[in-house]
Amino acid sequence: MKKQATLFLAMLFSVVVVAQTTPAICIATVDPGTNYNMIGWDKVAFPASSYNIYQETSSGSGVYNVIGNTPTGSLSVYFDISSDPDVGSSSYKITTIDGGGVESAQSAAFSTMFLTVALSGASVSMFWSAPGGFVPVQYDIWRGATSSTMTLIDSMSGSLTSYFDISPPLGTVCYRIEAPNPAGCVPTAPPTDYSSSFSNTACTTILSAADPDQSRLVVDVTPNPFSSTAIFTIDGTSQSVDLELFNMIGKKVHGLYGIPASRFELSRENLPDGIYLYRISSDSGLLKTGKVIVN
Question: Does the pTM exceed 0.85?
Answer without folding.
Answer: no
